[in-house]
Amino acid sequence: MSAESLWLLCLGLCLGLADQGENEKLPRPSLCAWPSSVVEPGSSVTLQCRAGFQNATFMLGKLHDPGFKQEQSSAETQAEIPLAILQPEDAGGYFCAYKTAATGQWSEQSQRLQLVVTGSWPAPSLSVSADPEAAPGHRTLRCLTPNNGSECLITALLRTGTPDPVQVKEGRENQTDFTLCESSEDRGSYSCVYYQCDWPHLGSSRSSHLEMQATDETDGPGAPSTKTDLRSILAATFSCLAIVLLLICVFLVDGWTRQDSSGGDSSKRSSHSKCDKQETSDFAHLENSPVPEVTHVELNADIPSEVASVPAEVPPASREGAELEV
Predict the structure, then answer these.
(1) CA angle, corner 145, sides to 143 and 150, nearest 5?
(2) Which residues contact 192 (CB under 8 A, 6 or more apart)?
(3) Which distant-in-sequence residues (6+ apart) come within 8 Å of 234 by Cβ?
(4) Core-most of 148, 171, 181, 193, by most CB within 10 Å?
(5) β strands within 89-165, DSSP E
(6) Where among 208, 228, 248 does a domain terminate?
(7) pLDDT higher than threshold 80 for residue 203
(8) Are residues 69 and 145 in the same domain?
(9) Does residue 55 sit within a domain?
């Protein structure tokens, strides 16, 4: 093989590898917002672009705004781009892409992330709808907006602690229904918000929060459990306990009163019984004591009758009277 043929072979291999590197597509990145993609004016949010390669350069862009472009290099497989002091004009659709030193080409753009800045429209209302067509084991949340049907609006159902909306629906009606399963996975604090379908994507304020719990934790099917219900249950429980304690105190006081009154009568009865027992014992002692025997003196026949019949001693006064008579 000549030197010219060898050189042409090497050149062809190099061109083939270059074409293969240019035609190779990088995996599509993902974009998310933390703590939430629905924020209040003046707050901050962090947009995280995640790729499958390390040591890449990341780029954040915005739809309908060619002048917005932020780049950041990262040794990790992701980049975090902060957005601070957000205003209504910062709302809109964001996307990200990345490139590596080996390719030098930007990857395919991520899916669009809709950033909503609230406060430009009145707040909607969120409630539980008694939908007869709802399937068993499901409940319907209805978000009412002041839309008159002249403008396209996007209504989003939000749950506290979840960065992205749980459900999103587009329409011109003034009410939007969201269906949830009656399970522990769907319990939480919900609210809703709406914003314009088209640029500048102005958003409303959040609705009031609605606390939802699983079916086995509610008072009835389809009825939401709220903090007010919990407070009512606790108040009723404490009231019942107070009534029970009051009844116990009344019974104890009544028992002590009866015991005191019966104590005096029993002491009197015990004193009388002691006297009766003493008299009975004395009488029994008298009955059991021996009767003294009468001693009969037998007169001796040999003693003269004069001695035997000794007259009784005459009192002195009688003797003096007898002497006077003589």
Answers:
(1) 135
(2) 124, 126, 141, 143, 155, 156, 157, 158, 176, 178, 206, 207
(3) none
(4) 193
(5) 92-100, 113-117, 125-129, 138-144, 153-159
(6) 228
(7) yes
(8) no
(9) yes
Contact between residue 49 and residue 58 where contact means Cβ atoms under 8 Å apart: yes
Rounded to two decimals, the pTM is 0.58
Amino acid in the structure at residue 20: Q
| 3-state SS class at 119 | coil
Condensed to tens digits (0 to 9), the pLDDT of residues 248-300 reads 988 888 888 887 666 655 554 554 554 455 545 554 554 555 544 444 434 34
What average pLDDT is seen over the chain?
A: 77
Same domain, 131 and 59: no
Mean pLDDT of 100-112: 92
Residue 178 is encoded by which pair of tokens? 């969201």
The answer to whether residue 1 is domain-embedded is no
Same-domain status, 180 and 96: no
Can you give the pLDDT at residue 17? Answer: 45
Of the three residues 97, 117, 137, the one that is the final residue of a domain is: 117
Query: Could you tell me the CATH number of the domain that includes residue 62?
Result: 2.60.40.10
Q: Which two tokens stand for residue 214?
A: 């699983």
**Opening angle at CA 57, ends 51 and 59, nearest 5:** 85
- Whether 167 is covered by a domain: the verdict is yes
Domain residue limits at 211: 125-228
Nearest to 195 by CA among 122, 127, 126: 122
Looking at the 3D structure of the chain, how many domains does it have?
Answer: 2
How far, in Å, CA of 211 to CA of 216, rounded?
Answer: 15
Angle at alpha carbon of residue 167, lines to 90 and 150, rounded to 5°? 65
Same domain, 87 and 142: no
Query: DSSP assignment of 182-199, as one string?
Result: SSGGG-EEEEEEEEESST
Q: How does pLDDT run across 57-71, given as a tens digit for each residue? A: 999 999 999 999 999
What is the C-alpha separation between 162 and 187, in angstroms, rounded?
12
Asked if residue 19 has pLDDT above 90, the reply is no
Strand order in the sheet with 125-129: 125-129, 138-144, 175-181
Q: Which helix (H) or strand (E) holds 74?
A: strand 69-74
